[in-house]
Amino acid sequence: MKEIEPWGVNVPFLLLGLSYWFLGGMSLTTRAPLNIAMHPFFMMIGAYSIYFGMFQRLFFPAKNYIMLQLASLILLSVPIYPFQAFASISLAGVELWGIKDVKSYGSRFPVNWLVLLSPFASAVAWFIYPEDVWALTVPLLLYLLGINVGVFSATLGLKPKFGWKQIPIIGLAIATGFLPKLLPALMVFYVAWLILGTRKVNLNVTAITFLLSPLVALTSSLFLGEEFHAFALGLMAPFFFGCIAYSTSRYNYGKMTPVPALLLIAYLVRPLDLGASSIFFVFATVYFLFMIRGNLTLTTVKTGMSARYVSPHVK
Question: Any idea where the domains of the chain sit in the sequence?
Answer without folding.
Answer: 1-109
